[in-house]
Amino acid sequence: MDQTLIDRATEIVATGYQLSQQLDLPTLQAAHQSLEKETFVVDFWQRSDAQAVMQHIALFQEKIDGVSKLNRLLADATASQELQVVADQEENEQLLMDFESTLRKLVSLTKKLQLEEFLSGPYDKNGALFSVHSGQGGTEAMDWSEMVRRMYLRFFDQKGWQYTLIAESRGEEAGIKAAEYEVNAPYAYGYLKRERGTHRLVRQSPFNADNLRQTSFALVGVLPLIAVTDTEIKLNEADLSWNFSRAGGAGGQNVNKVNTAVELTYLPTGLVVKCREERSQTQNKERALQKLKAMLAQEAEEKRETALSTEKGVHKNASWGNQIRNYVLHPYHLVKDTRTEVETADTEGVLNGNLDEFIQAEIQQL
User: Fold this and answer.
1) Are 177 and 169 in contact (CB under 8 A)?
2) For 186-190, 200-204, 218-222, 299-303, which range has the lowest pLDDT when averaged over its residues?
3) Which letter, b or e, does each residue of 281-311 get, where b requires 16 or more Cβ atoms within 10 Å of its Cβ?
4) Whole-number pLDDT of residue 310
5) Are 326 and 338 in contact (CB under 8 A)?
6) What residues does 182 pair with on adjacent strands?
7) Is 53 left (phi over 0), alpha (psi -120 to 50) or beta?
8) Cβ contacts of residue 290 below 8 Å, gap of 6+?
9) What is the phi-psi region of residue 251: left when phi exceeds 0, alpha when psi lies from -120 to 50, beta otherwise?
10) In degrees, to the nearest 5, what angle opens at C-alpha 317 toward C-alphas 312 and 320?
11) Measured distance CA(82)–CA(2) in Å, rounded
């Protein structure tokens, strides 16, 4: 076996074993079993935190599956190395191919598990409410927003994440004005929260005969997916002001005849949440409360991160309008993150959902 491959394999396997010990499979399994016992209680589903418990069980199961797979790959890699010593030439070639395949899987899984260890925020393990809004630029911006939406949906598909369209507003000529999705996947919020902000596109315009260079903006929003029954964020009914109206638009005849649309104002801060997508007032009220809790949770997390950044001597503005990434398609091809300086000329790959390099760099910079 080539010495370079031996050295690389030794490093990969050593990192894998270190991570396996750190995550400690028996401890994870014990925690999983302890939570599962709680679900066997007769009145478990009457508990206000039942959904949260089930979510934690799912997270532990995913981590257990990941560590179990890591241990299997480490055993396969070790066995392959030992077998190559006694194999003949023909067998050795096949073993080498299998060994290299195992190493690639090890690297991929190790990176995933290591990245999840960085995601230690209070809501990082949650799903996400993900939205895209067109910014300045009219039809150009709406078309760009559609491209951004497609880019992230491709990324979700690559991750195997489940997502559901909540609301969509189409552009008059092309693209979208806005779209919102519920992403039900462990760690979705942790992965996506740093994608929040302004995404800037520079390209030749497809909407005028002169093909002039055009700059367009799309705004990405990410909120933690929090259950209405979540007890971490407590809401005082006296702090909530409700306003109801007719929804109009798509959604069935009922939405145009009764007051199904909801506007919720959180009086202490003036935050306003509007929901009109669902068919009933009750459903829209639940959705509004869910969004309000998500917004308050995000505000609290941003304050915590700002305090940590101040202690470290680093200030990061995580505001909604902060420009985080530039996508240049003319006169050259380049995607560059303004925070990490990560860049690539593979604009086609990025727009097809290959965002891991950018997202991982930002997470590891926290």
Assistant:
1) yes
2) 299-303
3) beebbbbbbbbbbbbbbbeebeeeeeeeeee
4) 61
5) yes
6) 129, 164
7) alpha
8) 225, 226, 227, 228
9) left
10) 150
11) 15
- Partners of 352 in the β-ladder: none
* Average pLDDT rounded to a whole number, residues 173-197: 93
Q: Tokens 């396997």 appear where?
A: 13
d(CA 225, CA 293): 9
Backbone angles phi, psi at 224, to 5 degrees: -70, 140
Strand segments (E) across the chain: 128-134, 162-170, 176-184, 197-204, 213-224, 240-245, 261-266, 271-275, 323-328, 334-337, 343-344
List pLDDT tens digits, range 45-94. Answer: 988 778 778 888 988 998 999 999 999 999 988 888 777 655 555 566 77
Find tokens 């990490």 and name the residue.
Answer: 340
Q: Which CATH number, 3.10.450.350, 3.40.850.10, 3.20.20.100, 3.30.70.1660, labels domain 128-224+314-364?
A: 3.30.70.1660
CATH architecture of the domain 3-118 equals Up-down Bundle (1.20)
- The hierarchical CATH code for the domain 237-311 is 3.30.160.20
Long-range pairs, 253-259, Cβ under 8 A, ≥24:
254/279, 254/280, 255/279
Q: Identify which of 266, 282, 279, 303 has the alpha carbon closest to the alpha carbon of residue 228.
A: 282
pTM: 0.78
Count other C-beta atoms under 10 Å from residue 118's C-beta: 14
Question: Tens digit of pLDDT for each residue in 87-139?
Answer: 555 566 777 888 888 899 999 899 889 888 888 888 898 999 999 999 877 89
Lowest-confidence range among 282-296, 324-338, 344-358? Answer: 282-296
pLDDT at 252: 46
Q: What DSSP designation does 93 have?
A: H
Q: Where are the domains of the chain?
A: 3-118, 128-224+314-364, 237-311
